[in-house]
């Protein structure tokens, strides 16, 4: 039976880029444990020699002709941006400068 | 004039195309109905009356000029689940993250509806990013069930189902990842169809779980659903998982089924879907439905699909895993919400603050669950094993469809539950999808058709009909025959028995 600690939830939240609150850590730790215990039942299925299915339809690479086709204009692409500068997305600093 | 809202899409289209009534009159009647009842229901997140009336007027103008209608549904009003992009209306997915977001492009489904002359009146409420079974996970408040305003309309597409059930629109579009079209249809007394995976383009459908998501029709009659299916279905080069094959002949099948003869059709009752955990009134309604199928000439047998018992846990590993990956796009950088950008914080800090503020509890739970299931050390035991179970479910369907033409079950184990009843118990909520999930995992076609009212609480029950991949027409044929028999036996369509929500004294 899987157990999941507060510290593990904090780690998952970090991986998932979620700045969860202290209260959420407690709530999600208990809820995720209940859910994981339930879904862990898939492990009871004897499936060692069963191939996995990632997709219901047989997927193969899909190609298209290498020709230009209309896409978004720069203005359209930027239309939902929180901030723009010089016709580009303006984002917070990426590198740690401290 | 409000009575126009009681007509089916097929009837409305016929009258509009014959120029007995105008598309503008029809649209106005539905907009009036929305004004009257939506304050109580909250099925819509966005309405665009001027655009709807303009689209309707364009249909009328064309007909007056003598142009043939653009499609069998030209001039008929419709609502779109707020998960399909629309260039002229916000697309929020029921999330704060996308509050007010105006997409720079139309989904293929949206584009096809416009080209078909269908009148888009607005966008419907949904569980955030389609994660939920009650529409309570919407950041904009719950939608209520027109059969009982204290109850949920199902989810995630509760807005589309409630809007159709309450005669706000005759048609709506939904999406079904684990039952989000069929389960709301079951609990609101409407018809909801999950087409074969790949049958309706996902281009412009904001992704939750890409290998499972599928758009489909919501209607009050099987024929109306089929007419909409043919408008939105078909190959789309913009969706790499789109099936390059003709849309199955679902309209023809619905018309053939309405003749009320199922002689020679083999129907399998899934033995796994019944017993403990199922509401007695739901099981009783299902038994009556199965005996009607028998009376229609179908040969009914019981079919065991043992792997279906593992479908729910497999789904709640696969869907969250795909969701944790898909929702990584909501990073606050290019569109949508951004929080905490004070000039000092890094992009990574802003991203984490934005996602924390923008997502509701269920979305966060699923993202973390998926992150866990995909983690090194757990991958094989969880995600890998779930994918193997998926194979076993596909095999169970294949074996079943060698013996029978369609499978049937209740659509969902209970009738509509009360608002608030399951919000703090995610697992109880997940059980709503018990019977609908196998068809998502296997990718085949499945629908829910009203099966009367439960004898213990008087609320709608759905009959689920499942057909093999690309044999969507089979499910339509059986559902249409059943619909005619049920309506005949009960003195009219179930959908017409919904309580009138008009404010008293108006």
Can you walk me through this structure?
The complex is a heterodimer of chains A (98) and B (506). Chain A has a two-stranded antiparallel ribbon with strand order 1-2. Chain A is mainly α. The longest helix of chain A has 18 residues, at 22-39. Chain A is 33% helix and 4% strand. Chain A is flat. With 506 residues, chain B is of the alpha/beta class. Chain B has 16 helices and 11 strands. Chain B has an 11-stranded mixed β-sheet, with helices on both faces. In chain B, helix 9 links the parallel strand 7 (266-270) and strand 8 (299-303). Chain B is globular and about 70 Å long.
Q: How many extended strands of chain B?
A: 11
Mean pLDDT metric of chain B:
96
Rg of chain A, rounded, reads 23 Å
Number of helices of chain A: 3
Provide a brief overview of the structure.
Chain A is mainly alpha-helical and 98 residues long. Chain A has helices at residues 6-15, 22-39, 74-77, and strands at residues 84-85, 88-89.
Features:
heterodimer; A: 98 residues; mainly alpha; Histone, subunit A; two-stranded antiparallel ribbon; 3 helices; 4% strand; flat; B: 506 residues; alpha/beta; Amidase signature (AS) enzymes; 2 domains; eleven-stranded mixed beta sheet; 39% helix; 12% strand
Sequence-ordered SSE layout with sheet pairings:
The complex is a heterodimer of chains A (98) and B (506).
Chain A: H1 6-15, H2 22-39, H3 74-77, E1 84-85, E2 88-89
Antiparallel strand pairs in A: 1-2
Helix pairs in contact in A: 1-2
Chain B: H1 9-17, H2 23-41, E1 44-47, H3 49-65, E2 77-81, H4 108-115, E3 119-124, H5 158-165, E4 171-175, H6 182-188, E5 191-194, E6 215-219, H7 222-232, H8 250-257, E7 266-270, H9 280-295, E8 299-303, H10 311-326, H11 347-358, H12 361-373, H13 380-403, E9 406-410, H14 426-430, H15 437-442, E10 445-453, E11 460-467, H16 472-490
Parallel strand pairs in B: 2-3, 2-4, 7-8, 7-9
Antiparallel strand pairs in B: 1-3, 4-6, 5-6, 5-10, 9-11, 10-11
Helix pairs in contact in B: 2-3, 7-8, 8-16, 10-12, 10-13
């Amino acid at each position: 039976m899987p157990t999941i600690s507060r510290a593990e939830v904090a780690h998952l939240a970090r991986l998932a880029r979620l700045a969860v609150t202290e209260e959420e850590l407690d709530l999600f730790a208990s809820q995720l444990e209940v859910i994981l215990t339930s879904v862990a039942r898939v492990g009871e299925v004897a499936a060692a020699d069963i191939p996995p299915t990632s997709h219901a339809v047989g997927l193969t690479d899909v190609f298209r002709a290498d020709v230009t086709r209309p896409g978004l204009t720069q203005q359209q692409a930027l239309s939902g941006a929180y901030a723009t500068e010089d016709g580009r997305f303006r984002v917070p600093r990426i590198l740690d400068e401290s | 004039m409000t009575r126009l809202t009681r007509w089916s899409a097929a009837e409305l289209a016929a009258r509009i195309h014959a120029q007995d009534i105008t598309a503008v009159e029809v649209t106005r009647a539905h907009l009036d109905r929305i004004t009257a009842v939506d304050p109580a229901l909250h099925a819509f997140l966005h309405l665009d009356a001027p655009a709807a009336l303009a689209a309707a007027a364009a249909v009328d103008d064309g007909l007056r000029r003598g142009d043939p209608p653009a499609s069998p549904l030209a001039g008929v009003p419709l609502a779109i689940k707020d998960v399909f992009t629309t260039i002229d209306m916000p697309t929020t997915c029921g999330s704060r993250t996308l509050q007010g977001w105006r997409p720079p492009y139309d989904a293929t489904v949206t584009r096809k509806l416009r080209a078909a002359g269908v009148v888009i009146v607005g966008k419907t409420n949904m569980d955030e990013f389609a994660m939920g079974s009650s529409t309570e996970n919407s950041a904009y408040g719950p939608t209520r069930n027109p059969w009982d305003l204290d109850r949920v309309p199902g989810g995630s597409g509760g807005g589309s189902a409630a809007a159709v059930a309450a005669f706000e629109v005759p048609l709506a579009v939904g999406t079904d990842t684990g039952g989000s079209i069929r389960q709301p249809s079951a609990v609101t007394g409407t018809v909801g169809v999950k087409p074969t995976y790949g049958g309706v383009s996902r281009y412009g459908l904001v992704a939750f779980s890409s290998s499972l998501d599928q758009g489909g029709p919501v209607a009050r009659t099987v024929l109306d659903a089929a007419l909409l299916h043919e408008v939105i279905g078909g190959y789309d080069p913009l969706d790499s998982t789109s099936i390059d094959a003709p849309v199955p002949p679902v309209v023809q099948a619905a018309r053939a089924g309405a003749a009320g003869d199922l002689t020679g059709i083999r129907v399998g009752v899934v033995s796994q879907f019944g017993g403990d955990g199922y509401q007695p009134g739901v099981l009783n309604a299902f038994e009556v439905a199965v005996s009607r199928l028998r009376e229609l000439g179908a040969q009914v047998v019981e079919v065991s699909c043992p792997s279906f018992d593992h479908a729910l846990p497999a789904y709640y590993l696969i869907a969250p895993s795909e969701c944790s990956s898909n929702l990584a796009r909501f990073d606050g950088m290019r569109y949508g919400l951004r929080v905490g950008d004070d000039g000092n914080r890094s992009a990574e800090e802003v991203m984490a603050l934005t996602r924390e503020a923008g997502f509701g509890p269920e979305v966060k739970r699923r993202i973390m669950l998926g992150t866990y299931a995909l983690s090194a050390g757990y991958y094989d035991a969880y995600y890998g094993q779930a994918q193997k179970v998926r194979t076993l479910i596909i095999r169970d369907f294949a074996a079943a469809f060698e013996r029978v033409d369609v499978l049937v079950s209740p659509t969902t184990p209970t009738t509509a539950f009360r608002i608030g009843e399951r919000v703090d118990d995610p697992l109880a909520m997940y059980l709503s999808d018990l019977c609908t999930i196998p068809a998502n995992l296997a990718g085949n076609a499945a629908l829910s058709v009203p099966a009367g009212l439960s004898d213990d609480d008087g609320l709608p029950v759905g009959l689920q009909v499942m057909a093999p991949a690309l044999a969507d027409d089979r499910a339509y044929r059986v559902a249409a025959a059943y619909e005619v028999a049920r309506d005949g036996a009960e003195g009219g369509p179930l959908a017409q028995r919904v309580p009138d929500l008009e404010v008293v004294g108006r």
